[in-house]
Amino acid sequence: PALFMENARKGSIVSRANSIGSTSASSVPNTDDEDSDYHQEPYKESYKDRRRRAHTQAEQKRRDAIKKGYNDLQAIVPTCEQQDFSMGSQKLSKAIVLQKTIDYIQFLHKEKKKQEEEVAILRKDVMALKIMKVNYEQIVKAHQDNPNEGKDQVSDEVKFNVFQGIMDSLFQSFNTSISVTNFQELSACVFSWIEEHCKPQTLRDIVIGVLHQLKSQLY
Compositional bias of type Basic and acidic residues: which residue ranges (predicted)? Predict the structure, then answer.
């Protein structure tokens, strides 16, 4: 009996030791499993996801560019800054911004055409003044080259005849071109007559014709 009890005691001690070892082993972390989980490959973005993300970014850039373009139009076009009282404080729609921009561009085209016409008229005036300048310079030069020309001055009667001949010729065209129905038509016709019949070249031809006529009468 003593031997049996000794063996039972030893078996109990071994059993408890095995139990403690099993518990301790179970409490120790499994480093092999953790290492395998820790070194897992990172998530790779698929081609479809990259394409979707690039498309989203491109679409956002396009929307931002369109928005910036409309904002720039509203800042540039003066009529977009003028608030329409019928709309109150409502923001201008894209359609209204485009229409106001088109109207403003058409207005600028008309203004440009008007300015080009005015420039053309001014160029004609400048050309006429240049011709008159040349003629006066020639007259001055002729007087300077002939200092004794004053000794043979023409009479006042001849000068009056020259003046009368010029005025008679101008009055003929004036009388046929001018309407005296009302003051508005008179004003419009006067300017038209001056532009048409009082050009430097036209006046020069009239004066030359009158002088030739008087010359034939005097000599």
Answer: 37-48, 56-65
